[in-house]
Amino acid sequence: MSRSLKHVAIREYVRSLVEGSAPGTAAPSERDLVDRFGVARMTVRQALDALVSEGVLERFPGRGTFVAAPRRTASGVTGFSEEMARRGIVADSRTLAADQLPAGENLARALQVPAGIPVVHWRRLRTADGRPVCLTDAYLDRTRVPGLLESLPTSLYDDLAARGLRPSWAEDMLAAATATPEEAALLEVPSGAAVLRHHRRALAGDAVVEVSRTVYRGDAYTLNVQLCS
Amino acid sequence: MSRSLKHVAIREYVRSLVEGSAPGTAAPSERDLVDRFGVARMTVRQALDALVSEGVLERFPGRGTFVAAPRRTASGVTGFSEEMARRGIVADSRTLAADQLPAGENLARALQVPAGIPVVHWRRLRTADGRPVCLTDAYLDRTRVPGLLESLPTSLYDDLAARGLRPSWAEDMLAAATATPEEAALLEVPSGAAVLRHHRRALAGDAVVEVSRTVYRGDAYTLNVQLCS
DNA sequence: TAGTGGTCTAGACCACTAT
DNA sequence: TAGTGGTCTAGACCACTAG
Protein backbone atom coordinates (compact mmCIF):
# COMPACT_ATOMS: atom_id res chain seq x y z
CA MET A 1 0.00 0.00 0.00
CA SER A 2 1.70 3.13 -1.24
CA ARG A 3 -0.46 5.54 0.72
CA SER A 4 -1.89 4.25 3.93
CA LEU A 5 -4.71 6.72 4.62
CA LYS A 6 -5.38 5.48 8.10
CA HIS A 7 -8.89 6.83 8.25
CA VAL A 8 -9.77 4.82 5.14
CA ALA A 9 -8.34 1.66 6.66
CA ILE A 10 -10.30 2.21 9.85
CA ARG A 11 -13.45 3.03 7.93
CA GLU A 12 -13.26 -0.13 5.87
CA TYR A 13 -12.41 -2.19 8.92
CA VAL A 14 -15.50 -0.96 10.70
CA ARG A 15 -17.61 -1.35 7.58
CA SER A 16 -16.60 -4.99 7.26
CA LEU A 17 -17.23 -5.60 10.96
CA VAL A 18 -20.64 -4.13 10.70
CA GLU A 19 -21.95 -5.30 7.37
CA GLY A 20 -24.64 -7.85 7.75
CA SER A 21 -25.21 -6.89 11.38
CA ALA A 22 -28.69 -6.15 12.54
CA PRO A 23 -29.61 -2.49 13.01
CA GLY A 24 -28.90 -1.48 16.58
CA THR A 25 -25.81 -3.64 16.92
CA ALA A 26 -23.09 -1.73 18.72
CA ALA A 27 -20.05 -0.69 16.70
CA PRO A 28 -16.65 -0.44 18.41
CA SER A 29 -16.34 2.68 20.52
CA GLU A 30 -14.08 5.44 19.30
CA ARG A 31 -11.58 4.79 22.06
CA ASP A 32 -11.51 1.08 21.25
CA LEU A 33 -10.51 1.92 17.72
CA VAL A 34 -7.92 4.39 18.97
CA ASP A 35 -6.28 1.56 20.92
CA ARG A 36 -6.63 -1.03 18.20
CA PHE A 37 -5.14 1.14 15.46
CA GLY A 38 -2.84 3.23 17.60
CA VAL A 39 -4.12 6.49 16.13
CA ALA A 40 -5.51 9.73 17.46
CA ARG A 41 -9.16 9.99 18.20
CA MET A 42 -9.72 12.59 15.49
CA THR A 43 -8.60 10.03 12.96
CA VAL A 44 -11.10 7.52 14.20
CA ARG A 45 -13.80 10.16 14.15
CA GLN A 46 -12.96 11.00 10.56
CA ALA A 47 -13.47 7.35 9.66
CA LEU A 48 -16.74 7.06 11.53
CA ASP A 49 -18.01 10.39 10.19
CA ALA A 50 -17.92 8.93 6.71
CA LEU A 51 -19.93 5.88 7.73
CA VAL A 52 -22.43 8.04 9.57
CA SER A 53 -22.98 10.29 6.58
CA GLU A 54 -23.34 7.21 4.40
CA GLY A 55 -26.09 6.08 6.70
CA VAL A 56 -24.24 2.94 7.81
CA LEU A 57 -23.86 4.03 11.43
CA GLU A 58 -25.71 6.21 13.89
CA ARG A 59 -24.18 7.95 16.88
CA PHE A 60 -25.92 8.49 20.18
CA PRO A 61 -24.09 10.82 22.56
CA GLY A 62 -23.45 9.12 25.84
CA ARG A 63 -24.49 5.72 24.53
CA GLY A 64 -22.29 4.81 21.63
CA THR A 65 -22.25 4.14 17.91
CA PHE A 66 -24.61 1.62 16.39
CA VAL A 67 -25.55 0.07 13.08
CA ALA A 68 -28.23 2.27 11.55
CA ALA A 69 -31.53 1.06 10.22
CA PRO A 70 -31.48 1.05 6.43
CA ARG A 71 -32.37 4.42 5.09
CA ARG A 72 -35.52 5.08 3.19
CA THR A 73 -34.57 5.76 -0.37
CA ALA A 74 -36.43 7.85 -2.87
CA SER A 75 -37.71 6.11 -5.94
CA GLY A 76 -35.01 6.14 -8.54
CA VAL A 77 -35.28 6.72 -12.24
CA THR A 78 -36.74 3.55 -13.62
CA GLY A 79 -38.17 2.44 -16.92
CA PHE A 80 -41.46 0.69 -17.46
CA SER A 81 -39.97 -2.81 -17.65
CA GLU A 82 -38.20 -2.43 -14.33
CA GLU A 83 -41.20 -0.86 -12.70
CA MET A 84 -43.44 -3.70 -13.78
CA ALA A 85 -40.89 -6.30 -12.74
CA ARG A 86 -40.74 -4.71 -9.32
CA ARG A 87 -44.49 -5.16 -9.04
CA GLY A 88 -44.27 -8.73 -10.22
CA ILE A 89 -46.13 -8.09 -13.45
CA VAL A 90 -45.16 -9.55 -16.80
CA ALA A 91 -44.49 -6.59 -19.06
CA ASP A 92 -44.32 -6.86 -22.79
CA SER A 93 -44.36 -4.45 -25.67
CA ARG A 94 -45.13 -4.22 -29.35
CA THR A 95 -43.08 -1.88 -31.48
CA LEU A 96 -45.30 0.32 -33.59
CA ALA A 97 -42.54 2.44 -35.05
CA ALA A 98 -38.76 2.54 -34.93
CA ASP A 99 -37.47 5.20 -37.23
CA GLN A 100 -35.77 8.56 -37.43
CA LEU A 101 -37.61 11.86 -37.53
CA PRO A 102 -36.38 15.42 -37.86
CA ALA A 103 -36.60 17.00 -34.43
CA GLY A 104 -39.11 19.78 -34.01
CA GLU A 105 -38.08 22.81 -32.01
CA ASN A 106 -39.36 21.69 -28.64
CA LEU A 107 -38.03 18.19 -28.98
CA ALA A 108 -34.66 19.45 -30.19
CA ARG A 109 -34.36 21.76 -27.20
CA ALA A 110 -35.33 19.01 -24.80
CA LEU A 111 -32.83 16.61 -26.35
CA GLN A 112 -30.14 19.29 -26.63
CA VAL A 113 -29.66 18.73 -30.35
CA PRO A 114 -29.98 21.20 -33.24
CA ALA A 115 -33.52 21.61 -34.56
CA GLY A 116 -34.30 19.68 -37.71
CA ILE A 117 -31.71 16.95 -37.39
CA PRO A 118 -32.99 13.39 -37.36
CA VAL A 119 -33.48 11.77 -33.99
CA VAL A 120 -34.29 8.19 -33.09
CA HIS A 121 -37.98 7.60 -32.50
CA TRP A 122 -39.32 4.42 -30.97
CA ARG A 123 -43.03 3.94 -30.41
CA ARG A 124 -44.25 1.02 -28.37
CA LEU A 125 -47.54 -0.25 -27.10
CA ARG A 126 -46.80 -1.75 -23.72
CA THR A 127 -48.77 -4.42 -22.02
CA ALA A 128 -48.95 -5.83 -18.54
CA ASP A 129 -50.20 -9.38 -18.19
CA GLY A 130 -51.26 -9.14 -21.82
CA ARG A 131 -53.47 -6.04 -21.48
CA PRO A 132 -52.50 -2.74 -23.06
CA VAL A 133 -51.35 -0.26 -20.44
CA CYS A 134 -49.56 2.53 -22.19
CA LEU A 135 -48.26 3.95 -25.40
CA THR A 136 -44.73 5.36 -25.32
CA ASP A 137 -42.87 7.50 -27.79
CA ALA A 138 -39.21 7.65 -26.91
CA TYR A 139 -36.84 10.08 -28.64
CA LEU A 140 -33.09 9.74 -28.44
CA ASP A 141 -30.04 11.47 -29.82
CA ARG A 142 -28.99 9.08 -32.59
CA THR A 143 -25.32 9.76 -32.00
CA ARG A 144 -25.59 8.37 -28.49
CA VAL A 145 -27.30 5.11 -29.40
CA PRO A 146 -25.75 3.81 -32.63
CA GLY A 147 -27.31 0.57 -33.78
CA LEU A 148 -30.32 0.85 -31.49
CA LEU A 149 -32.84 0.80 -34.31
CA GLU A 150 -31.15 -2.15 -36.01
CA SER A 151 -31.54 -4.38 -32.97
CA LEU A 152 -34.21 -3.13 -30.67
CA PRO A 153 -33.62 -4.10 -27.04
CA THR A 154 -36.21 -5.57 -24.70
CA SER A 155 -35.63 -2.85 -22.15
CA LEU A 156 -34.51 0.58 -23.27
CA TYR A 157 -33.11 1.41 -19.86
CA ASP A 158 -31.08 -1.81 -19.76
CA ASP A 159 -29.72 -0.97 -23.18
CA LEU A 160 -28.81 2.54 -22.10
CA ALA A 161 -27.14 1.15 -19.00
CA ALA A 162 -25.03 -1.15 -21.16
CA ARG A 163 -23.89 1.93 -23.07
CA GLY A 164 -22.96 3.69 -19.84
CA LEU A 165 -25.95 5.99 -20.22
CA ARG A 166 -28.13 4.85 -17.37
CA PRO A 167 -30.30 7.82 -16.45
CA SER A 168 -29.52 9.08 -13.00
CA TRP A 169 -31.80 12.06 -13.16
CA ALA A 170 -35.22 12.64 -14.64
CA GLU A 171 -37.58 15.53 -14.97
CA ASP A 172 -41.12 14.25 -15.19
CA MET A 173 -44.39 15.97 -15.95
CA LEU A 174 -47.70 14.35 -15.16
CA ALA A 175 -51.16 15.39 -16.20
CA ALA A 176 -54.58 13.86 -16.59
CA ALA A 177 -56.24 14.18 -19.98
CA THR A 178 -58.54 12.35 -22.32
CA ALA A 179 -57.44 9.87 -24.96
CA THR A 180 -57.35 10.95 -28.58
CA PRO A 181 -59.16 8.59 -30.95
CA GLU A 182 -55.85 7.08 -32.07
CA GLU A 183 -54.66 6.54 -28.51
CA ALA A 184 -58.03 5.15 -27.53
CA ALA A 185 -57.94 2.60 -30.34
CA LEU A 186 -54.48 1.39 -29.42
CA LEU A 187 -55.12 1.30 -25.70
CA GLU A 188 -58.51 -0.34 -26.28
CA VAL A 189 -60.48 2.22 -24.36
CA PRO A 190 -63.37 4.42 -25.44
CA SER A 191 -62.38 7.63 -27.13
CA GLY A 192 -62.25 10.36 -24.51
CA ALA A 193 -61.38 8.00 -21.66
CA ALA A 194 -59.18 9.40 -18.91
CA VAL A 195 -55.47 8.88 -19.45
CA LEU A 196 -52.34 9.85 -17.58
CA ARG A 197 -49.85 11.74 -19.70
CA HIS A 198 -46.28 11.41 -18.62
CA HIS A 199 -43.47 13.38 -20.20
CA ARG A 200 -39.93 12.58 -19.19
CA ARG A 201 -36.53 14.04 -19.79
CA ALA A 202 -33.90 11.61 -18.57
CA LEU A 203 -30.27 12.55 -18.06
CA ALA A 204 -27.08 10.67 -17.44
CA GLY A 205 -24.64 13.14 -15.97
CA ASP A 206 -25.23 16.31 -17.95
CA ALA A 207 -26.29 14.54 -21.13
CA VAL A 208 -29.95 14.17 -22.06
CA VAL A 209 -30.31 10.54 -23.07
CA GLU A 210 -34.04 10.18 -23.53
CA VAL A 211 -37.09 12.31 -24.02
CA SER A 212 -40.31 10.36 -23.85
CA ARG A 213 -44.03 10.86 -23.93
CA THR A 214 -46.21 8.17 -22.49
CA VAL A 215 -49.97 7.83 -22.31
CA TYR A 216 -51.21 5.48 -19.62
CA ARG A 217 -54.70 4.06 -19.39
CA GLY A 218 -56.21 5.75 -16.38
CA ASP A 219 -58.00 2.59 -15.34
CA ALA A 220 -54.96 0.35 -15.61
CA TYR A 221 -52.06 2.24 -14.17
CA THR A 222 -51.12 4.04 -10.99
CA LEU A 223 -47.81 5.78 -10.70
CA ASN A 224 -45.98 5.54 -7.40
CA VAL A 225 -43.38 8.03 -6.37
CA GLN A 226 -41.29 8.38 -3.26
CA LEU A 227 -39.98 11.82 -2.49
CA CYS A 228 -37.56 13.04 0.07
CA SER A 229 -36.16 16.39 1.07
CA MET B 1 -25.69 32.35 24.08
CA SER B 2 -25.64 29.51 26.50
CA ARG B 3 -23.62 27.16 24.32
CA SER B 4 -21.32 28.72 21.84
CA LEU B 5 -20.55 25.88 19.43
CA LYS B 6 -17.79 27.61 17.62
CA HIS B 7 -18.00 25.44 14.55
CA VAL B 8 -21.62 26.43 14.15
CA ALA B 9 -20.76 30.10 14.42
CA ILE B 10 -18.02 29.72 11.83
CA ARG B 11 -20.23 27.67 9.55
CA GLU B 12 -22.98 30.26 9.63
CA TYR B 13 -20.50 33.08 9.16
CA VAL B 14 -19.14 31.45 6.04
CA ARG B 15 -22.60 30.61 4.83
CA SER B 16 -23.68 34.22 5.10
CA LEU B 17 -20.50 35.39 3.38
CA VAL B 18 -21.07 33.04 0.55
CA GLU B 19 -24.77 33.10 -0.02
CA GLY B 20 -25.66 34.87 -3.18
CA SER B 21 -22.14 34.57 -4.51
CA ALA B 22 -21.58 33.16 -7.96
CA PRO B 23 -20.38 29.58 -8.16
CA GLY B 24 -16.60 29.53 -8.24
CA THR B 25 -16.20 32.47 -5.89
CA ALA B 26 -13.41 31.81 -3.42
CA ALA B 27 -14.40 31.24 0.18
CA PRO B 28 -12.01 32.29 2.96
CA SER B 29 -9.14 29.87 3.37
CA GLU B 30 -9.07 27.64 6.41
CA ARG B 31 -6.12 29.50 7.87
CA ASP B 32 -7.86 32.85 7.37
CA LEU B 33 -10.74 31.57 9.44
CA VAL B 34 -8.37 30.23 12.07
CA ASP B 35 -6.95 33.74 12.47
CA ARG B 36 -10.29 35.51 12.32
CA PHE B 37 -11.96 33.32 14.93
CA GLY B 38 -8.91 32.43 16.97
CA VAL B 39 -9.69 28.72 16.84
CA ALA B 40 -7.86 25.57 15.88
CA ARG B 41 -7.83 24.47 12.31
CA MET B 42 -9.79 21.31 13.06
CA THR B 43 -12.64 23.49 14.26
CA VAL B 44 -12.65 25.43 11.03
CA ARG B 45 -12.56 22.20 9.06
CA GLN B 46 -15.52 20.90 10.99
CA ALA B 47 -17.46 24.00 9.99
CA LEU B 48 -16.46 23.77 6.35
CA ASP B 49 -17.08 20.01 6.23
CA ALA B 50 -20.71 20.67 6.95
CA LEU B 51 -21.01 23.21 4.14
CA VAL B 52 -19.24 20.88 1.75
CA SER B 53 -21.55 18.00 2.52
CA GLU B 54 -24.50 20.36 2.14
CA GLY B 55 -23.23 21.14 -1.33
CA VAL B 56 -22.63 24.82 -0.55
CA LEU B 57 -18.86 24.67 -0.95
CA GLU B 58 -16.36 22.62 -2.92
CA ARG B 59 -12.76 22.03 -1.91
CA PHE B 60 -9.88 21.74 -4.33
CA PRO B 61 -6.63 20.55 -2.75
CA GLY B 62 -3.87 23.02 -3.39
CA ARG B 63 -6.25 25.64 -4.75
CA GLY B 64 -8.75 26.47 -2.09
CA THR B 65 -12.40 26.36 -1.18
CA PHE B 66 -15.01 27.75 -3.52
CA VAL B 67 -18.73 28.27 -3.83
CA ALA B 68 -20.16 25.16 -5.46
CA ALA B 69 -22.42 25.16 -8.47
CA PRO B 70 -25.97 24.52 -7.30
CA ARG B 71 -26.64 20.81 -7.12
CA ARG B 72 -29.42 19.30 -9.07
CA THR B 73 -31.84 18.45 -6.37
CA ALA B 74 -34.74 16.11 -6.52
CA SER B 75 -38.06 17.79 -5.93
CA GLY B 76 -38.65 17.80 -2.26
CA VAL B 77 -41.81 17.19 -0.39
CA THR B 78 -43.81 20.33 -0.89
CA GLY B 79 -47.34 21.42 -0.28
CA PHE B 80 -49.63 23.07 -2.76
CA SER B 81 -49.02 26.61 -1.47
CA GLU B 82 -45.26 26.28 -1.82
CA GLU B 83 -45.55 24.63 -5.20
CA MET B 84 -47.74 27.44 -6.53
CA ALA B 85 -45.51 30.11 -5.02
CA ARG B 86 -42.55 28.53 -6.76
CA ARG B 87 -44.40 28.92 -10.04
CA GLY B 88 -45.34 32.48 -9.27
CA ILE B 89 -49.05 31.76 -9.02
CA VAL B 90 -51.35 33.22 -6.39
CA ALA B 91 -52.77 30.26 -4.53
CA ASP B 92 -55.80 30.49 -2.32
CA SER B 93 -58.15 28.07 -0.72
CA ARG B 94 -61.64 27.78 0.66
CA THR B 95 -62.24 25.47 3.59
CA LEU B 96 -65.17 23.17 2.93
CA ALA B 97 -64.81 21.13 6.05
CA ALA B 98 -62.63 21.12 9.15
CA ASP B 99 -63.78 18.48 11.54
CA GLN B 100 -62.97 15.16 13.13
CA LEU B 101 -64.00 11.82 11.70
CA PRO B 102 -63.51 8.29 12.94
CA ALA B 103 -60.74 6.72 10.88
CA GLY B 104 -61.72 3.87 8.62
CA GLU B 105 -59.43 0.88 8.41
CA ASN B 106 -57.35 1.98 5.44
CA LEU B 107 -56.97 5.52 6.71
CA ALA B 108 -56.10 4.32 10.20
CA ARG B 109 -53.40 2.05 8.86
CA ALA B 110 -51.98 4.80 6.67
CA LEU B 111 -51.96 7.25 9.57
CA GLN B 112 -50.65 4.65 12.04
CA VAL B 113 -53.51 5.20 14.48
CA PRO B 114 -56.04 2.70 15.84
CA ALA B 115 -59.07 2.19 13.60
CA GLY B 116 -62.16 4.09 14.66
CA ILE B 117 -60.51 6.86 16.62
CA PRO B 118 -61.28 10.39 15.47
CA VAL B 119 -58.76 12.02 13.16
CA VAL B 120 -58.54 15.58 11.96
CA HIS B 121 -60.08 16.09 8.54
CA TRP B 122 -59.59 19.24 6.52
CA ARG B 123 -61.18 19.63 3.12
CA ARG B 124 -60.24 22.54 0.94
CA LEU B 125 -61.01 23.76 -2.54
CA ARG B 126 -57.82 25.30 -3.81
CA THR B 127 -57.56 27.96 -6.43
CA ALA B 128 -54.79 29.39 -8.54
CA ASP B 129 -55.25 32.90 -9.80
CA GLY B 130 -58.83 32.61 -8.67
CA ARG B 131 -59.73 29.49 -10.65
CA PRO B 132 -60.44 26.19 -8.96
CA VAL B 133 -57.60 23.76 -9.40
CA CYS B 134 -58.01 20.98 -6.90
CA LEU B 135 -59.91 19.55 -4.03
CA THR B 136 -57.88 18.23 -1.10
CA ASP B 137 -58.85 16.10 1.86
CA ALA B 138 -56.10 16.04 4.42
CA TYR B 139 -56.21 13.68 7.39
CA LEU B 140 -53.97 14.10 10.41
CA ASP B 141 -53.40 12.44 13.73
CA ARG B 142 -55.19 14.84 16.11
CA THR B 143 -52.65 14.25 18.86
CA ARG B 144 -49.91 15.67 16.70
CA VAL B 145 -51.67 18.88 15.72
CA PRO B 146 -53.53 20.19 18.76
CA GLY B 147 -55.40 23.37 18.03
CA LEU B 148 -55.17 23.03 14.27
CA LEU B 149 -58.92 23.01 13.72
CA GLU B 150 -59.44 25.98 16.02
CA SER B 151 -57.18 28.23 14.00
CA LEU B 152 -56.71 26.92 10.51
CA PRO B 153 -53.38 27.95 8.98
CA THR B 154 -52.89 29.37 5.51
CA SER B 155 -50.39 26.69 4.64
CA LEU B 156 -50.64 23.28 6.24
CA TYR B 157 -47.02 22.51 5.53
CA ASP B 158 -45.88 25.77 7.13
CA ASP B 159 -47.96 24.95 10.17
CA LEU B 160 -46.48 21.46 10.38
CA ALA B 161 -43.02 22.93 10.04
CA ALA B 162 -43.71 25.26 12.96
CA ARG B 163 -44.60 22.20 15.02
CA GLY B 164 -41.36 20.49 14.02
CA LEU B 165 -43.27 18.12 11.78
CA ARG B 166 -42.14 19.22 8.36
CA PRO B 167 -42.53 16.20 6.08
CA SER B 168 -39.19 15.00 4.82
CA TRP B 169 -40.51 11.95 3.07
CA ALA B 170 -43.62 11.26 1.04
CA GLU B 171 -45.12 8.30 -0.71
CA ASP B 172 -47.28 9.49 -3.55
CA MET B 173 -49.68 7.69 -5.85
CA LEU B 174 -50.90 9.25 -9.06
CA ALA B 175 -53.63 8.14 -11.38
CA ALA B 176 -55.88 9.57 -14.03
CA ALA B 177 -59.61 9.19 -13.54
CA THR B 178 -62.87 10.97 -14.18
CA ALA B 179 -64.51 13.44 -11.86
CA THR B 180 -67.44 12.35 -9.74
CA PRO B 181 -70.47 14.65 -9.96
CA GLU B 182 -69.60 16.22 -6.62
CA GLU B 183 -65.99 16.81 -7.60
CA ALA B 184 -67.07 18.13 -10.97
CA ALA B 185 -69.39 20.66 -9.39
CA LEU B 186 -66.74 21.95 -7.00
CA LEU B 187 -64.00 22.06 -9.61
CA GLU B 188 -66.37 23.64 -12.12
CA VAL B 189 -65.83 21.05 -14.82
CA PRO B 190 -68.31 18.77 -16.60
CA SER B 191 -69.10 15.58 -14.78
CA GLY B 192 -66.81 12.86 -16.08
CA ALA B 193 -63.98 15.26 -16.98
CA ALA B 194 -60.45 13.93 -16.65
CA VAL B 195 -58.85 14.51 -13.26
CA LEU B 196 -55.56 13.62 -11.67
CA ARG B 197 -55.90 11.77 -8.38
CA HIS B 198 -53.03 12.21 -6.00
CA HIS B 199 -52.76 10.28 -2.77
CA ARG B 200 -49.99 11.17 -0.38
CA ARG B 201 -48.59 9.77 2.81
CA ALA B 202 -46.17 12.29 4.28
CA LEU B 203 -43.74 11.46 7.05
CA ALA B 204 -41.50 13.46 9.35
CA GLY B 205 -38.89 11.06 10.62
CA ASP B 206 -40.79 7.88 11.32
CA ALA B 207 -44.06 9.58 12.12
CA VAL B 208 -46.84 9.82 9.57
CA VAL B 209 -47.96 13.42 9.76
CA GLU B 210 -50.40 13.68 6.88
CA VAL B 211 -52.45 11.46 4.65
CA SER B 212 -54.11 13.33 1.84
CA ARG B 213 -56.22 12.75 -1.21
CA THR B 214 -56.28 15.39 -3.87
CA VAL B 215 -58.22 15.66 -7.10
CA TYR B 216 -56.72 18.02 -9.65
CA ARG B 217 -58.48 19.36 -12.70
CA GLY B 218 -56.78 17.66 -15.60
CA ASP B 219 -56.97 20.79 -17.71
CA ALA B 220 -55.56 23.09 -15.07
CA TYR B 221 -52.73 21.29 -13.42
CA THR B 222 -49.54 19.53 -14.37
CA LEU B 223 -47.46 17.87 -11.74
CA ASN B 224 -43.70 18.17 -12.02
CA VAL B 225 -41.36 15.74 -10.40
CA GLN B 226 -37.60 15.48 -10.37
CA LEU B 227 -36.15 12.07 -9.66
CA CYS B 228 -32.65 10.96 -9.04
CA SER B 229 -30.98 7.68 -8.38
C1' DT C 1 -19.18 6.24 38.54
C1' DA C 2 -17.39 4.65 34.30
C1' DG C 3 -17.95 5.02 29.59
C1' DT C 4 -19.68 7.37 25.52
C1' DG C 5 -19.78 10.76 21.91
C1' DG C 6 -19.25 16.23 21.13
C1' DT C 7 -16.19 19.73 21.00
C1' DC C 8 -11.73 21.91 20.90
C1' DT C 9 -6.58 22.98 21.06
C1' DA C 10 -1.94 23.87 19.02
C1' DG C 11 0.68 22.23 16.70
C1' DA C 12 2.86 19.02 12.49
C1' DC C 13 4.16 17.11 7.72
C1' DC C 14 2.48 16.09 3.10
C1' DA C 15 1.11 16.78 -1.92
C1' DC C 16 -0.58 19.86 -4.74
C1' DT C 17 -1.41 24.50 -7.31
C1' DA C 18 -0.29 28.92 -8.85
C1' DT C 19 3.04 32.45 -9.72
C1' DT D 1 8.20 29.65 -3.36
C1' DA D 2 4.11 30.71 -0.89
C1' DG D 3 -0.35 29.23 -0.09
C1' DT D 4 -3.89 25.64 -0.12
C1' DG D 5 -6.37 21.66 1.49
C1' DG D 6 -5.49 16.50 3.36
C1' DT D 7 -4.03 14.04 7.04
C1' DC D 8 -2.62 13.22 11.71
C1' DT D 9 -1.13 13.67 16.75
C1' DA D 10 -1.81 13.72 21.86
C1' DG D 11 -3.90 15.48 24.59
C1' DA D 12 -8.29 18.17 27.10
C1' DC D 13 -13.03 19.26 29.16
C1' DC D 14 -18.00 18.74 28.60
C1' DA D 15 -22.81 16.66 28.81
C1' DC D 16 -24.99 12.69 28.64
C1' DT D 17 -26.27 7.61 29.54
C1' DA D 18 -26.24 3.39 31.93
C1' DG D 19 -25.46 0.36 35.69
UniProtKB/TrEMBL annotation, chains A, B:
Which domain of life does the protein's organism represent? Bacteria
**Isomerase in keyword set:** no
Q: Its Gene Ontology molecular function terms? A: DNA binding; DNA-binding transcription factor activity
Signal peptide annotation: none
> Which InterPro entries does UniProt cross-reference here?
Bact_HTH_transcr_reg, Chorismate_lyase_/UTRA_dom_sf, Tscrpt_reg_HTH_GntR, UTRA, WH-like_DNA-bd_sf, WH_DNA-bd_sf
The answer to keyword Transcription applying to this record is: yes
* Pfam families in the record: GntR, UTRA
Q: Which UniProt keywords apply?
A: DNA-binding, Transcription, Transcription regulation
GO terms under biological process: negative regulation of DNA-templated transcription
- PANTHER family membership: MANNOSYL-D-GLYCERATE TRANSPORT/METABOLISM SYSTEM REPRESSOR MNGR-RELATED, MANNOSYL-D-GLYCERATE TRANSPORT_METABOLISM SYSTEM REPRESSOR MNGR-RELATED
- The name on file for this protein is Putative transcriptional regulator of N-Acetylglucosamine utilization, GntR family
Q: Which organism is it from?
A: Nocardioides simplex (Arthrobacter simplex)
